[in-house]
Amino acid sequence: MTTTEDQSVSDAVTAGSHATDIARSGAATFRTGGGQADPARVSAVVGAALEGIRAAIREQKVTYEEFDAFKRWLISVSDTGEWPLFLDVYLEFEVEKVAAETQDGSVGTILGPFWLDGQAQLDSPATLPMRDDEPGTPMILAGQVTSTDGTPLAGAKVDIWHTDEEGWYSGFASKPPAGNLRGVVTADDQGRYEIHTRKPAPYTIPLDGPTGQMTLAAGWSPWRPAHIHLLVTAPGHRTLTTQLFFTGDPYLGNDVASADKPELTLDPQPTGNGDEIRSDRDFVLAPE
């Protein structure tokens, strides 16, 4: 991840291999019920995907040179471990749209490839783990977690992670220490939470890997607007996977991952405590 398009980065392989390990382990399958794939569904989905590629070949009159370049690109994606990055950036938002058709409660969006299990367990009000001299604007995110009938969800968990001011995720780049700006915050007996952190920065997907190189070759923006990732959970309720963005961000509406939504935009206000800002956001979870 980078915050400037001309910055030289060498973390694509580090980030890609870590994301691949997580995907291979199945650690992020909490969004589904699991189970064996239905052969009829495999046939239908894979068949449709392959036909879509074949149609593109026919319509665009793909040459053998282009086909061979495509094969080399596929090999590069595998070599760097960037399949989770590519799939989450360019396909997950469509899967999320399908899932949202049958979900009530707060608006969600994609998980992305940079979630990590086993982070610091914190009670609200909480300060996320950070360096003593952590750069960035101090920020408070606070609110309440309720069920769709308005019942406060005591002890709800708010799993939160985001980049630092330079656009780096801990665990996926060499700069931030392990666990930096990550934590799982337990709400109080009224479902209320308060999290002290730093405002994140916009960033590009890794530009030194095949996903970033393809994005630049196509002339597409590689930028993600600044955002905060959240998983909000409570017993007996569906997990909410969402992100929160910031009003005025120059990359809103042009998110490379197509994950930003107007309903998810924050407008933090000064608290009067130095340059600290605060935004309140409630979450509503649907029963399982």
UniProtKB/TrEMBL annotation:
The keyword Oxidoreductase applies. GO terms for molecular function: catechol 1,2-dioxygenase activity; ferric iron binding. GO terms for biological process: catechol-containing compound metabolic process. Its cofactor is Fe(3+). Residues 141-169 form the Intradiol ring-cleavage dioxygenases domain. Its EC number is 1.13.11.1. Residues 257-288 are annotated as: Disordered. InterPro entries: 1_2-CTD_multi_dom, Catechol_dOase_N, Intradiol_dOase_C, Intradiol_dOase_core, Intradiol_RC_Dioxygenase. Residues 275-288 have a biased composition (Basic and acidic residues). The keyword Metal-binding applies. SUPFAM superfamilies: Aromatic compound dioxygenase. Keywords: Dioxygenase, Iron, Metal-binding, Oxidoreductase. Belongs to the intradiol ring-cleavage dioxygenase family. This is Catechol 1,2-dioxygenase. It comes from Actinomycetospora corticicola.
